[in-house]
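Lecture 7, part 2: worked example. A protein chain together with uracil.
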Amino acid sequence: MRLDKFVADAAQLTRSVARALISRGRVTVNGQVCKKADLALQTGDAVCADGKSLVCEEYVYIMVNKPAGVVSASADGRDKTVVDLLNGAFPRRQLFPAGRLDKASTGFVLLTDDGAFAHDILAPKRHVPKTYHVVLDTPVTPAMAEAFAAGVTLADGQRMQPARLIPDETDPFAATVVLRQGVYHQIKRMFGVLGAGVNGLHRTAIGGLSLDESLAPGAWRLLTPAEKTRLQTGGE
Ligand code: URA
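Predicted complex, written out as structure tokens:
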């Protein structure tokens, strides 16, 4: 696709306004200013206007490495949100987090404007696994792993589905937890009834897609189509 058509479609501008932006040097392709309106874009080219990414797709899917202290919401009167981390990069999109992490938790949050996709990966029946690295205030025990495998009953009587707890081989206080459901504060509450407190909780994967370790806390990037597909895998 030509650059001027791409900019017009992605930024919802007329073709002549898009050409004016390009000729004024306000558009970059792969980080370089490009003033050629007829440039033929290649798949994977990253186009920005005034420093903001332009995407022509119907929906966007964004991996964020959530830092502690940021809330999993689109907007919040008090705290910084995961959508604020994008610094207005997608001004016309109604982005929201597909699944929440607590304010103190860190790691992989998916942002999208595709409600059907978010519903699909969150739906309890789909059983898309979410993987966490957990650090406890007490050593992980075999009894904890057995209780997770059997299904922990929370303090309010709710019975959780079986979950995996894999002790860390190097740190006796740490473990990997894999959940296939998403109940409010689920991991903290599951460990709570087993007498352990959670000092650190970091989501490392959703479905078959791991958090990109090159993303610093607070950083984000768009998913590739293959990565989007991997998000939906891992269930049975
Ligand atoms: N379980 C929790 O307790 N907190 C999270 O952020 C995610 C899962």
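The chain has a mean pLDDT of 93. The longest strand covers residues 198-206. Keep this in mind for problem set question 3.
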